[in-house]
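Worked example 3 (structure in, sequence out).
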């Protein structure tokens, strides 16, 4: 039981840390506002505990993140907002559901997985709500790399190769047709020409596809 209680405690603590980050973006640090927005009986106790463990400082109605609290809160915000982008943009989950799922997922993403998600999405600067995503190590490393890791097939240069990561068909029936031509996630394709039509090479066979399909196939460029 002890473990379960500790876990719930942590969840509330993380929720508060994230809220403090979001409030600070809007210029607020009010203790009362935190308690009202968290909507949990334990909120003010938890804030006091967080003060004891050195995550925040409290004076009058002001709550401020300490350096330690700041690191944790920044990290949670980053994971939450990246998860939102992933669900919203790639999996096309609705805004509200993306938000809820992000709240769960943020607790499980390891730092390296977080950076992989960030790179996969092309180091997005904001979440779907327009809030800034705190930058990670991956972002500064690839600061000069304009292209995201995964691009639409039509973005590839003629002559380059890409491995199919996912296909987002506007009609489901198309997936089957593509699959019958060997166009499935995992296959490596070479872009032979873009004009007048798209021509791909897959297993040494050339295939012409229309430009709409070239927008629905997402590849990771092979160097
Ligand atoms: Zn958001
Ligand atoms: Zn990044």
């Amino acid at each position: 039981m002890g473990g379960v209680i500790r876990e719930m405690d942590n969840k509330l603590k993380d929720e508060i840390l994230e809220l403090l980050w979001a409030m600070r973006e809007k210029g607020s640090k009010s203790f009362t506002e935190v308690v009202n927005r968290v909507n949990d009986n334990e909120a003010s106790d938890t804030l006091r505990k967080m003060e004891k463990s050195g995550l925040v400082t409290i004076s009058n109605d002001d709550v401020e993140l300490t350096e330690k609290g700041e690191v944790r809160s920044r990290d949670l915000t980053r994971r939450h907002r990246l998860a939102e982008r992933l669900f919203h943009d790639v999996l096309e989950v609705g805004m509200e559901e993306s938000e809820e799922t992000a709240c769960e997922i943020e607790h499980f993403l390891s730092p390296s997985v977080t950076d992989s998600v960030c790179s996969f999405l092309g180091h997005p600067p904001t979440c779907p709500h327009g809030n800034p995503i705190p930058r990670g190590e991956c972002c500064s490393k690839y600061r000069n790399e304009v292209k995201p890791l995964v691009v639409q097939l039509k973005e590839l240069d003629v002559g380059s190769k890409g491995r199919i990561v996912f296909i987002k068909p506007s009609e489901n029936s198309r997936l089957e047709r593509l699959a019958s031509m060997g166009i499935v996630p995992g296959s490596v394709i070479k872009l032979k020409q873009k004009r007048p039509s798209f021509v791909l090479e897959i297993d040494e066979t050339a295939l012409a596809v229309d430009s709409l399909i070239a927008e629905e196939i997402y590849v990771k460029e092979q160097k």
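Notes: The CA atoms of residues 12 and 146 lie 38 Å apart. The radius of gyration is 22 Å.
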